[in-house]
Design brief:
The protein is an alpha/beta fold. The chain is built from 14 helices and 8 strands. Belongs to the DeoC/FbaB aldolase family. DeoC type 2 subfamily.
Length: 343
């Protein structure tokens, strides 16, 4: 991995020369266009697991965010959250209620108490299965909030490739402006980097103008080195975001994994000039967890990666806990749990 500023504890084999981007359509301007698969770069990736774990353990101790600053960071976290419902019992009514929450994630009285009654605060996106895309698009019409669809055989990525590509195309056609695809983990476990590259490139092509968020399923990848290499290959293939997890694995987002992925994002940006977003997902339900990931982004990637264009948190219950913490900051007391329950 690329060494962090002041932390030469990990290393990555970044190419000596700037990597030439893949030519894409004019409407892709500003997005990561990807580049040719560089197997030499992939092979040179190294991760010192012990050092990465030590560094990740310091994230919550190195920077203390308190009082007004903490409240501001938590409001920012709300704007970077992808409100998510991916359940077998999802209904149009539930999705519409979730979209209402995305439009107004903080209670108006709480927002006024925070001195933010003149601010439009909304979540980063609403994330649903393909069958609920049209419902979400209609419910969010005029809000500017994107709909993200999970696709490509989510959560396991084991459907036939033609079906996975068709699902991506269908979700984009239904109005999803972001597509969260899941890779075939077997490509990583077998070190089949060409197979992974071609798979992600096919999904990127199927997305059209919709942005592609590539879910690695990091809990299934076994090693931090493979997490880094899979992240790098996904970016070479044109990923707009790299994402940790589906939320369905036994182990989902962790700070060591996030550190490794963030440093790979930085190495890619330094080599190509293109910035890729990062999305931790799965098991992030407490405000303190959001602060930890925000701190990691700020220290490893810089201020731009605290904005929803480059940072998202995949969560369903996180906003409820953030509301509780902000209520305590504003009033000195916690509201009853049901006041901030998700719809």
């Amino acid at each position: 991995m690329a060494a962090s500023r002041g932390h030469a504890d990990t290393a990555t084999g970044a190419p000596a020369a700037v990597v030439e981007p893949v030519a894409r359509k004019a409407d892709d301007e500003g997005r990561n266009p990807g580049c040719a698969l560089r197997l030499d770069w992939v092979a040179d990736v190294r991760v010192n697991r012990a050092a990465a774990e030590r560094r990740a353990a310091t994230v919550i101790t190195r920077r203390s965010v308190k009082n007004e600053a903490q409240a501001a960071w938590l409001v920012k976290a709300v704007t970077c959250t992808d409100l998510t419902t991916l359940n077998s019992d999802d209904t149009p009514g539930r999705v519409r209620r979730l979209c209402g929450k995305a439009r107004q994630p903080l209670d108006p009285d709480l927002q006024a108490a925070l001195g933010l009654d003149d601010r439009v605060i909304r979540t980063g996106a609403v994330c649903v299965y393909h069958g609920m895309v049209a419902t979400a698009v209609a419910a969010l019409d005029g809000s500017g909030i994107p709909v993200a669809a999970v696709a490509a055989g989510f959560p396991h990525g084991l459907s036939p490739m033609r079906a996975r590509v068709a699902e991506v195309e269908d979700s984009a056609a239904a109005g999803a402006s972001e597509i969260d695809i899941v890779i075939s983990r077997q490509h990583v476990l077998r070190r089949d980097w060409r197979g992974l590259y071609d798979e992600v490139a096919a999904f990127r092509a199927a997305c059209g103008a919709a942005h592609l968020k590539v879910i690695l399923g990091t809990g299934d990848l076994k090693t931090l080195r493979d997490v880094a290499r899979a992240s790098l290959v996904a970016m070479m293939a044109g990923a707009d975001f790299v994402k940790t997890s589906t939320g369905k694995e036994g182990v989902n987002a962790t700070l060591p994994v996030a550190l490794v992925m963030a440093r790979t994002v930085r190495a890619y940006a330094e080599a190509t000039g293109y910035r890729v977003g990062f999305k931790p997902a799965g098991g992030i339900s407490a405000a303190k967890d959001a602060l930890a990931y925000q701190t990691l982004m700020r220290e490893e990637l810089g201020r731009d990666w605290l904005e929803p264009e480059l940072f998202r948190i995949g969560a369903s219950g996180l906003v409820s806990d953030i509301e509780r913490q902000l209520t305590h900051f504003a009033t000195g007391a916690y509201a009853a749990g049901h006041r901030h329950a998700m719809p």
